[in-house]
Amino acid sequence: MEFWTSLASLMGVFAFFQSILHAVFPLELRFAAVKIFHRVFCCFSTYCYFDITEMDGVNTNELYHAVQLYLSRSASIAASRLSLSRGLNSSAFTFGLTNNDRLVDTFRGAIATWEHAVTQRQSQSFSWRPLPEEKRSFTLRIKKKDKAIILPAYLDHIMETANELRRRNQDRLLYTNSRGGSMESRGFPWESVPFKHPSTFETLAMDPSRKELIMADLTDFAEGKTFYEKRGRAWKRGYLLYGPPGTGKSSMIAAMANYLGYDIYDLELTEVHTNSELRKLLMKTTSKSIIVIEDIDCSLNLTNRISKKASPSADASSDLRPVGGSEDGGAGAKTITLSGLLNFTDGLWSCCGSERIFVFTTNHIEKLDPALVRSGRMDMHIHMSHCSFPALKILMTNYLGFDDREFDDKTETSDLMRELADVIDDAEMTPADVSEVLIKNRRREKEAAAGELLDVLKERVEKRKKKKPTGEEMEEEEQEKRALESTSSESDQMMDSCDGKEDKGEGEQV
C-alpha cells in the first residue's frame, strides 16, 4: 500500500514539473531543442537512415515496390514472420516482410539493414484520390562509411533485379492490334491474352545442330546490351522464317518467346490503315518482346520491285494494298507503303525501344522485296524445311516415348529406324504431317506406331514418283532457288532512296 502511495506522489510531482516546463518553454522552443538533440545524436552515430514510403505524395513510389520484390528472394529464409501474395498475371508467390520485421542484406561487402513499418494513417478529409488506410514504408540503415558504396549502385541493382523478377514471375502475354488501330479505354492499341503455348526448343522438330545455332544467337542478343551500346547500334534483331506450310514456323516463334521469356506482339497488317498507325503500334510495344508479322507475302502485296521496274507507278513509296483489295485509291484502300514498313523495322522509330526482336514469316521468300530481307532488318534467315530424320527422332520421342537408346543401331528396332532414315527425305513430309500420323497412333505400341508411319512415308514416296512436276511447278521451284541464291546480292543493287542506308552483306542463313 505504501508503494502505491509513493508512486502516486511521484507521478504528481512529475505532472507538476511538466506543467511548469510547458508554461516556461513554448512549443517552438521545445521543437528546436529536440531538433538540436537529434542532430547531435546523428553526428555521433555511425549509421545513416533512408525512408522509402509506399506513396510519394499522391503517386505510387516505384522504388518501394521494387524493394518489396527484391527482398522477397531472401525473406522466406531470413524473416520470422512473412506476408504472402500473388500478383495479377503472375505465376509465382511473393514473400514480404510484416510490420517491424527486419532483414539484413549485403552488397559489395557492405551491410544493409531493412525494416518494414506499417502504421495507421490519420482519417483524411474529402480527397479526389483517397489514400490507403495504412502507411507503409521501408527504412534502410547503412553505415556512413559505406554510403559511397551503397548509393546509388545498390538502388540501381535493386531496380534491375526487381524488374527481372517481375518479368520472370509474370505470365507471358500475346498481343494483337485492335481493329483499325483504334485505342481502347486506356489509350492502348493492343489487346492481350495470356500466352500459354507449350512449344520449346527441346520439343521443336528441327535438326539439333541448327537449334543450337539459333539458341546461341538468341542468348548473345539477350546478353548483348553493352555490346550494342558501345557500337552505337539499336538493341534489336530480325529473323526471317521461310519454308512450306506446316514446317513449324509458328512453333519456332513460340519456342523463342518461351526461351527468352519475352511477350509476343502479333501484328496484323491488314488492320493497319496508314504509316502513322504503324508507328503508333510500334511505340506502344514494350522492351523484351517479339514483334511478329506472319505470312507477310499474303498480308500485303509486297512483290519484288525487279518485276515492276518498267512501271513508273511501282515506286517504293507507292501504296501497298491488301491482296484482293481496292486498287483505285478509294475509301477502302490502304496507304501503308513499303518505306513505312522498312522504317518500322529499321528506321528511326524502331529505336524508340530496346531489346526487341522482329520476326517475319513467309511461305514464298522469292515474293519478298530484297530491301525487306536484307541484313540489318532480317539478320538471320531460317529455312524451315521438310521433316528430316533428326527432326523425326524428336517427334517420335515427343509422341511415342522413344529414347536415345532405342535409336541406337544395336537395338531391336534398328532395322525399323534405318528404313525410316532411308525414306524420310524422299517422302518430303512436313513435321505437321508426321505429327498428325503419330497422334493418330499414339495409343498403339511404339513399334506398331512407328511401322504405321513407315507405311505412310513409303506411300508418299510412291505418289511422288508417279506424279511428275508440271512446268509451272518446276518454274516456281526454280524461282525459289534463284531467290535463295541471289537475295543478298540483289538487295544491294535494288536499294533506293527508301532505304536511307548503304549497309552491305547478307543475312545469316540457317
UniProtKB/TrEMBL annotation:
Question: Which domain of life, per UniProt?
Answer: Eukaryota
Q: What GO terms in the biological process aspect are recorded for it?
A: response to stress
Catalysis: reaction(s): ATP + H2O = ADP + phosphate + H(+)
Residue stretches of biased makeup (Basic and acidic residues)? 498-510
Cofactor(s) it depends on: Mg(2+)
A GO molecular-function descriptor? ATP hydrolysis activity
Spell out the residue ranges making up region: Disordered.
459-510
Q: Keywords for this entry?
A: Magnesium
Classification via InterPro entries: AAA+_ATPase, AAA_N_dom, At3g28540-like_C, ATPase_AAA_core, Mitochondrial_chaperone_BCS1
Residue ranges constituting the AAA+ ATPase domain according to the UniProt record? 235-388
Q: Which family does it belong to?
A: Belongs to the AAA ATPase family. BCS1 subfamily.
Q: What name does the UniProt record give this protein? A: AAA+ ATPase domain-containing protein
Q: Which organism is it from?
A: Zingiber officinale
